[in-house]
Amino acid sequence: MSVNKIALAGNPNTGKSTLFNTLTGLKQHTGNWPGKTVVHAEGSFEHNGEQYVLVDLPGTYSLFSNSADEEVARDYIIFDQPDATIVVLDATSLERNLNLALQVLEMTNKVIICINLIDEAEKKGIRIDDKKLARELGVPVVKISARNKKGIDQLLDTLNQLVHGQIVTTPYRMTYSKEIEEAILKVESKIKGYFDGKYPSRWIALRLLDGDEELILKLQNHKNNRQGEEITNGVPVSVKS
Ligand SMILES: Nc1nc2c(ncn2[C@@H]2O[C@H](COP(=O)(O)OP(=O)(O)OP(=O)(O)O)[C@@H](O)[C@H]2O)c(=O)[nH]1
Ligand SMILES: [Mg+2]
Predict the structure, then answer these.
(1) Average pLDDT, whole number, for the chain?
(2) Nearest residue CA, atom 32 of ligand 1?
(3) 42 lines ligand 1 (CB under 6 A)
(4) Residue 230 C-alpha to ligand 2 middle, in angstroms?
(5) Is the pLDDT of residue 157 over 70?
(6) Where in the sequence of the chain do the CATH 3.40.50.300 domains occur?
(7) CB of 152 closer than 6 A to ligand 1?
(8) How many angstroms is it from 126 CA to the middle of ligand 2?
(9) Does any ligand 1 atom lie closer than 6 A to the CB of residue 109?
(10) How does pLDDT run across 107-121, given as a tens digit for each residue?
(11) Which among 14, 78, 147, 160 is least buried, having the fewest CB atoms inside 10 angstroms?
(12) Is any atom of ligand 1 closer than 6 Å to the C-beta of 115?
């Protein structure tokens, strides 16, 4: 049976680790990400007979690799290509939190928006129209309270449907000016050919147009390391000689 890799992303202090602990209980390992003094927590759980590995990414406000935390979170989504990324948002400051959500939506189709601290929002009289948000963002939106263990079953059922392809997403993507969109198209077609469509080409095109040279080196390294490997279900498997 295959194991589904799930990432938890979000701003600092949105309850990612609380959700992580709720889902994984005591089945977790912690350490540092390779070469970084950034805590890595990984745990596992089962739902409906399905196995999941959950990775608690560092909390960040963006994913532009301006810090070790951002780099770790970005690289995990781009290179490890989880089966789903749950973006945890704070219901009491949605507007600020949606910035990171939009960045994740540009990187992958497999996203669930999880609005946490819904109990706090209710206390403050904030009402969130999750259905409207889901329509506008093109991905499932689930409201939870990780601390009070509310909405967890719905989150897990949504996750189950997403990893089985029963939910098809159409993530919201920013449209830029005509000049930028033309430049994206040109760069994107080259990227698709060069990387065999393995990475999110529009997102890479945007990063390259932004002058992220370090990303080019990383992508090249990743491509070279993958040569001689066969990819099965998104997981590299060494080819037997
Ligand atoms: N009221 C309420 N508080 C919550 C909920 N979920 C988490 N918290 C609290 O929010 C605070 C931050 O939670 P964490 O789980 O540490 O947040 P985090 O996203 O892992 O934070 P970083 O690791 O710093 O990015 C803690 O005090 C939690 O107890 C919730 O559903 N309701
Ligand atoms: Mg945490």
Answers:
(1) 90
(2) 117
(3) no
(4) 34
(5) yes
(6) 3-163
(7) no
(8) 24
(9) no
(10) 999 999 999 999 999
(11) 147
(12) no
Cβ atoms < 10 Å from Cβ of 172: 16
Task: Ligand 1 pocket test: pick from 8, 11, 13 the residue with the most ligand atoms within 8 Å of its Cβ.
Answer: 13
Would you say the CB of residue 22 lies under 6 angstroms from ligand 1? no
Burial class (CB in 10 A: 0-12, 13-18, 19+), 119: middle
Residues 88 and 86: their CA atoms lie apart, in Å, by 6
> Is the CATH code 3.40.50.1220 the one for domain 3-163?
no
- The mean pLDDT of 157-177, rounded to a whole number, is 96
- CA angle, 21 then 97 then 23, to 5°: 15
Nearest-angstrom CA–CA distance, 190 and 40: 34
Ligand 1 contacts CB of residue 119 (under 6 A): yes
In residues, how long is the chain? 241
- The fraction of the chain above a pLDDT of 70, given in percent, is 93
Using most ligand atoms within 8 A of CB, pick from 147, 149, 150 the residue to mutate for ligand 1: 147
Nearest partner of 53 among 95, 93, 6, judged by Cα: 6
